[in-house]
Amino acid sequence: RRVHGEVSNRKTRRMFARVLSGRVASVASFNVFRSFSSVSKFATVLPNEISGARPGKAQNLVNGEWRDAEKFVDILDPLNGEKFLQVPDTQIHELQPFVDSLAAVPKSGLHNPLKNPERYLLYGQVCRKAASLLHEDDVLDYFIRLIQRVMPKSYIQARAEVVVTRMFLENFSGDQPRFLARSFTVAGDHTGQASSGYRWPYGPVAVVAPFNFPLEIPALQFVGALLMGNKPLVKGDSKVSIVLEQFVRFLQHCGMPAKDLDLIYADGPVMGQIIERAPLRMLQFTGSSRVADMLTQKMHGRIKVEDAGFDWKILGPDVSEVDYVAWVCDQDAYAMSGQKCSAQSMLFAHSNWVKSGVLEKIASLASRRSLADLTLSPIMSLTTERILDHVEKVLHIPGARLLMGGKALTGHSVPKQFGAVEPTAVFVPLDEMLKPENFPLVTTEIFGPFQIVTEYDDSSLHKVLEACERMDHHLTAAVVSSNSIFLNKVLGHTVNGTTYAGLRARTTGAPQNHWFGPCGDPRGAGIGTPEAIQLVWSGHREIIRDEGPIPQNWTLPKPT
């Protein structure tokens, strides 16, 4: 009972037993929380103990001090509805310490290439120690289990999130932080003159992160901000921010100065007040396009965005490895119940692929998914009714038909404010999709296990490219083909910022070793790579040194 927590709902308890059984996690996972070792040095909430009977408690961090708020709000366990967390419900009259903390940060940052460069070395050591500790089984398993409690996903999906974060920290250990600030010099016009370009921090900045990746997205962004010399205020989704809080405590344990970062639990309007009152010079936002547009106005354009992605995949004319491609399609559309900004939202299948039976194989693979092992997840931002209502609207398009799913999940205790829906796909004829009265509906992003499927042939590829051109958001895409001419045509006529091409192309699963972000929007943010960090968390500064000597024959010229 200690391993599973004091969970009253029997179905939920049995489900956790299956999730943590040898089929998904190692047997060692059952025992790591009995000894704790490194975890006990930083953790204030334990994933195996929080429950309705023993809720965990969260805190804000401001100017190096962990603080309670005057009020707390209960967070529901997304699998059984128990009030298993209490998080600060920060009010507007409690914001002044956060405003003051940010106002104390100079525009030149906490460090830059010419000021406090020792801090580049400091963060190299922080990243090294953090990455090393994340190789310890108990620390790794702690964050995996904590993610699963607040954003239920399979053990493999949750583990991947922690491992990507660990590898990111490894990438920026040692001397790598100062290499981020590498400058360049160009020779001048005369002796003593040289022009140098520097990457310069902004100073006081903010990160607003979503619920679906409670660790990876905020961690990669705010660590990038710190490396470049900024002080970030970080706000996650309160439903899952306990993961973020524990990671901040973990980094403090690894040597991060306590005053280098502030963390707040707050709703949107309260965060909006901070944006209006604090001298924020950059805000990085990951989330919906509607909120991104609102924040763009509040920040007067000082924002970098990774917003909604209606992500498409094109299966080209050449067919091979059908089983593998079907498996990738299932993963892209339905892992985490489609709650990824990179999830496959639309599948353009060439008629050759349709004849191969790939759609039937995808349906068969999707049918294996279940809440019992968290290969399906509660849908955190949409209700079941909202999703099924959208399915019905799409099915009213002439020629549309249900390929799979379209039903609510049964036999669970997911609270009604969350969704629980079978993996769903609706086929819509390409010509009908492109009609002005239908296109906005079929390209509406549903952050859940739902995708649109259509068919094309060689003569209608131009219509597929038209559809891609008319879409509003361009995050990820995939072109599945081994035909280089076909690949070049599609890639040359599209703009998605992270596009996978080739037989193994996918839309999801971005690791830490390449750029991930949208394209076609000047606000577009990147994540994970040196180029992404430089783009989002620094600006270019040019310093021209002109130190003489003055020519010996210089005379006062006529005015010009």
What can you see in these coordinates?
The protein has 560 residues and is an alpha/beta fold. It is built from 20 helices and 20 strands. It has helices spanning 10-19, 32-35, 96-103, 118-133, 137-150, 155-171, 176-180, 216-227, 241-253, 268-277, 289-298, 322-334, 351-355, 358-366, 384-395, 430-434, 439-442, 461-470, 484-492, 530-537; strands at 56-57, 60-62, 65-67, 72-76, 83-88, 184-187, 193-200, 204-208, 231-235, 262-263, 282-286, 303-306, 311-315, 344-350, 401-404, 424-427, 450-456, 476-480, 498-501, 539-546. A 7-stranded mixed sheet has the order 15-16-17-14-13-18-19, with helices on both faces. It has a 5-stranded parallel sheet with strand order 10-9-8-11-12, with helices on both faces. α4 (118-133) runs antiparallel to α6 (155-171), α5 crosses α6 and α12 packs across α14.
Essential attributes:
5-stranded parallel β-sheet; 560 residues; disordered N terminus; alpha/beta
Summarize the structure.
The chain is an alpha/beta fold and 560 residues long. Helices cover 35% and strands 17% of the residues.
Q: Secondary-structure blueprint of this entry?
A:
Elements: H1 10-19, H2 32-35, E1 56-57, E2 60-62, E3 65-67, E4 72-76, E5 83-88, H3 96-103, H4 118-133, H5 137-150, H6 155-171, H7 176-180, E6 184-187, E7 193-200, E8 204-208, H8 216-227, E9 231-235, H9 241-253, E10 262-263, H10 268-277, E11 282-286, H11 289-298, E12 303-306, E13 311-315, H12 322-334, E14 344-350, H13 351-355, H14 358-366, H15 384-395, E15 401-404, E16 424-427, H16 430-434, H17 439-442, E17 450-456, H18 461-470, E18 476-480, H19 484-492, E19 498-501, H20 530-537, E20 539-546
Parallel strand pairs: 1-5, 8-9, 8-11, 9-10, 11-12, 13-14, 13-18, 14-17, 16-17, 18-19
Antiparallel strand pairs: 2-3, 4-5, 6-7, 7-20, 15-16
